[in-house]
Design goal:
Blueprint lengths: L3 E5 L5 H11 L4 E6 L4 E2 L5 H4 L9 E2 L2 H4 L4 E4 L2 E5 L4 E4 L3 E3 L2 E4 L3 E3 L9 H6 L9 H12 L6 E4 L10 H16 L5 E4 L8 H10 L7 E4 L7 E5 L4 E4 L3 E3 L3 E3 L3 E3 L1 H5 L24 E3 L13 H19 L8 E11 L2 E12 L2 E9 L6 H23 L1
Helix pairs in contact: 1-9
This protein binds flavin-adenine dinucleotide (FAD).
Flavin-adenine dinucleotide binds next to strand 2, helix 9 and strand 20.
């Protein structure tokens, strides 16, 4: 019937939206445009940084999606015109009936004086998009001298993967304890609390990380960074300066640059959407899912992106069939590893109620649990990864 859905971004959000639209209605032509030939998963990339996981198991391709009849185009989207309903790429133009956008995040380097994109790619990596920077940070950690600190600058809210910096700090502490016992992780944080904080800090004590291998400096104690100097490898705060050959700066974030450039963001830097369908409130027939969307009530996680993709896919197919959007529910679980055999999690199930994403159920791992329980959750983290990657790419 001539309907054409274009999906931009083949990650946790976009790949799933493309697949579920085809599964719901195989008569709809779906084109997925992704700039990279291979996708590297951020979830479980922190173990890669400490050398206990191979980057190859983070790597996924698009052949599985082609089997669902999706046209996969490897190209970079350079423009979106919601008026003429056209997506422009480096290599061509695509007319759409509906557009689904899941371009992930962009970094606001300029928010930290002294930091640039160039510096992030060479000397002070964020490793907050899995790929070359993950390996750069891994190599820097391996080369770091025993006694030097691993300096992490944590981002302000909201950001991709709220527990992620603290999972990374935990695993680096695990590595330092074994390989560089005179070193410690220093987390410079512009916040005074963080996701699963009680569970993390309880685990840090239990595993012997805090205070010897992790020092968390919140905003109230001077954690906010004022500038960095890449030439000398120094991070400055109001309270002091931190020097290292291994500095991990995770800058403040916004919606993906194509969403910003296309006028789909508001002053928050994220894309406002109707939470029942994920259709943009700024552009008709454009749906924004994943980290780029301002989805109050859901974290910026891969699992949330997956859930939002299914909500948007159902809404898109319903609209194309002239039906009302179904009533959605949303789900998220985030596992974090504090050591290879020590996992914790947070989970929620929500519904659309009173115009909002409203939590109905959920919770955290127990604050006290046996070693066997924590080990079981570490096992669940891996099985979650295998399941969601099969859902995304197979
Ligand atoms: P992405 O997965 O980043 O996909 C965006 C895609 O769009 C990319 O492939 C990109 O190349 C493409 N793209 C962007 N712009 C363009 C363009 N102009 N043209 C063409 N293509 C474009 N989440 C969890 O649920 N569980 C975890 O355990 C977890 N751990 C994490 C650990 C770390 C260290 C980090 C950094 C993140 C973690 N996350 C986790 C979060 C998760 O990675 C993100 O929330 C998720 O990737 C968001 O999906 P997305 O589709 O919005 O963006």
């Amino acid at each position: 019937h001539g309907n054409h859905v274009v999906v931009v971004g083949g990650g946790y959000g976009g790949a799933v939206a493309a697949k579920y639209i085809r599964m719901a209605d195989p008569t709809v032509k779906v084109t997925l445009i992704e700039q990279n030939e291979y996708y590297y998963s951020c979830p479980l990339s922190n173990p890669v940084i400490i050398g206990i996981r191979d980057m190859e198991v983070q790597k996924w391709g698009y052949d599985g999606l082609k089997k669902h009849g999706i046209d996969v185009v490897i190209d970079t989207v350079t423009g979106i015109d919601a008026g003429s309903k056209t997506v422009t790429t480096k290599g061509g133009k695509f007319k759409y009936t509906k557009l689904v956008l899941s371009p992930g995040v962009e970094f606001n380097y300029a928010a930290i004086p002294g930091l640039t994109k160039e510096i992030a790619h060479t000397s002070m990596p964020h490793a907050w998009k899995a790929g070359p920077q993950t390996l750069l940070l891994r190599d820097k950690l391996a080369a770091m001298k025993d006694g030097e600190p691993f300096v992490m600058v944590a981002p302000p809210n909201p950001f991709r993967c709220p527990p992620g910096p603290y999972e990374r700090a935990s695993l680096v502490a695990h590595y330092l304890k074994k390989h560089k016992p005179k070193s410690k992780v220093i987390i410079l944080d512009p916040k005074d609390k963080f996701s699963k904080m009680g569970l993390f800090r309880g685990g840090w004590k239990e595993l012997g990380y805090e205070p010897n291998y992790i020092e968390w400096i919140p905003a109230a104690e001077g954690g906010k960074v004022t500038k960095v100097d890449a030439a000398t490898g120094t991070v400055y705060t109001d309270m002091g300066e931190y020097k290292s050959s291994c500095i991990n700066i995770i800058p403040p974030m916004t919606a993906g640059s194509i969403a910003v450039a296309s006028g789909l963001t508001d002053k928050s830097g994220w894309c406002p959407v109707d939470l029942k369908t994920f259709e943009s409130t700024l552009a008709k027939d454009v749906y924004v899912i994943g980290d780029s969307s301002a989805a109050a009530g859901l974290p910026k996680s891969g699992y949330a992106a997956n859930s939002e993709a299914k909500v948007a896919a159902a809404a898109v197919v319903a609209a194309l069939q002239g039906k009302p959007a179904p009533m959605p529910s949303y789900v998220n679980t985030c596992y974090s590893l504090l050591a290879p055999d020590y996992g914790i999690s947070v989970a929620l199930v929500s519904v659309f109620e009173d115009g909002k994403i409203t939590k109905k159920s959920g919770g955290l791992s127990p604050s006290t649990a046996s070693k066997a329980h924590r080990k079981q959750e570490a096992f669940y983290a891996e099985s979650w990864y295998q399941s969601i990657m099969a859902d995304t790419f197979a």
